[in-house]
Fold each of these.
Amino acid sequence: MHPEINRLLVLLSRNIGQRKLYFSGHQIIRNACDVFAADLRKLLAELEIDRLFIGIVEDKLIYDGHYLVGPSIMGRQLVEFGRMLQCGGFIFKEDTTSEEIQVLLDFSNEFEHPISTLREARELLRSRDVVNIELASDYIAPSSLTPLEDQIVWQGLQSGGHLHSPLIVYQALFDVVAKTHGNISLDRSIDLEGAGAVSAHLLYSLRHNFTDMLQFVHYPDHDSYTVGHSVRVATLAVHIGENLGLDEELLLEFGTAALLHDVGKSKIPSEILFKPGLLTHEEFAEVQFHSRMGAEILLEQEGVTPMQVAAAWGHHLRHDGGGYPESPPWAVRGHLISLLQICDVFEALTAARPYKAPVTPLSAFGIMLADKGRFDPALLSTFISILGIYPPGNRVHLLDGSLATVISATSSVDKPLVRITHDQTGRKLDTTEQHLVDLEQDRSGKRAVAELLIGEK
């Protein structure tokens, strides 16, 4: 799969989100349309094709018969927009102009309710001189009655059935955080009930699809990493909390608080938040203000809980009393906010950012342990023992040449329980052939972990 297709679709979805914040013709919107049109032409030239078709099936984005994981997570707004237009996908021709992209973005902000029919949506596009962007009909199994154009664009669909349930949950988590940040940017109220509902789905998914769900903790989303960061911190927080034996009501509240802990960043200018280089002293001071701002925003919301406010305020406070925002000496953080701080830093260290590459969990633990006074030592020790140096969901290469997915840590942090997915020759094993191996019990040493495959699924 060409990686630029993923990037292009994430960019389009991000542009749809920006159009909700800026008026049509705003310089930011014009620049976004210019970039998309130029990148589209470059991609089509590289692929030696004259059009790009992106299909929508069961809330999934499809290209060339294959399900696109990243854009389906971060491109929720594109999927919803397609449904608003009653279409089954978009066709972008090589002559697509920046002005036509602008019209499409205007459409995304123009309608409060779905258009009645696909035919009406197509006529609306044509009425605004959009000739290089077409709307595809919904996918149907090809037959003699299927229009020829639809048979061609949907040819080779291999969607693989229903959307994998952990991905639905991750997508919903991503969506609720993205909408929360968008609403705050527009000074609208936050859907706290919605955040609580997806937190419940997260807890259920971790209990029933533990390893699959934690794989998304490592998903790189360079274009929306602030949102993805909150989702992954919440996933880690609920996983650790579950292992600590927290009752369900407290776990749900903790998960919701973790999802909302960075809401203050929605008020930080994007040119600072997504800056690829080092921040100036003034810019860093503005970023630091997000903790106080987040707490103030949440205090204005109806139904907010003390834990949610405390999470926004205190996730950058150190165990020794330092950090930010500056707090009075008598202020005491609860243990769960201290745990949230550990999840927050671990995710930031192990994730890719525009300004840095990810580090391994082992390196992250080394950095955290060396920072004396920053973390609650007992909680940090517990965190490390629960995750292990090869956290669940990661892919590892074993000494005997086989590949495996980490299922859980054991009492030996470097010897996890794994599921063998590929044999020593690299052949992918059928589901019935895959099997569990407890590396702690393997006395031969031939199946020790040789390498952690960073960023691999």
Amino acid sequence: MRKQISIVVALTAIALFAGCAMFGKAPQNSLVGTWTNPLGTVWALKSDGTFEVALNNSDHPSIWGKYTVSDNTLTLTESRGLQVPKSCRNEAVYKFNRDQDKLTFTLVSDKCRLRVKNVLLPWKPWTGK
């Protein structure tokens, strides 16, 4: 009888821990949020691995795409938009550092001059217009 109770308690504990893991909050990377740089570019990095960019404080995104994060490396895997040069559609890789409300990037590889010009500037959280 004692052995059966021990088994029931053990199975209950396992079920509880598995349930907690299944319903736990999905981890967020440290880039998720909406950022702006001194040029007025607004960059929204979403938790689903997509991003949108509005150049010059525009109300509408002019560039969008997908990204991945691994440790402190950001890889832009796809970029599309209204007037995206061909060189900006290729994969781009940057190292990043976030220190509370300051976000900075270091170039690893990117053939898109417009993107490099924007990304290498310091970023801060965007608070709206």
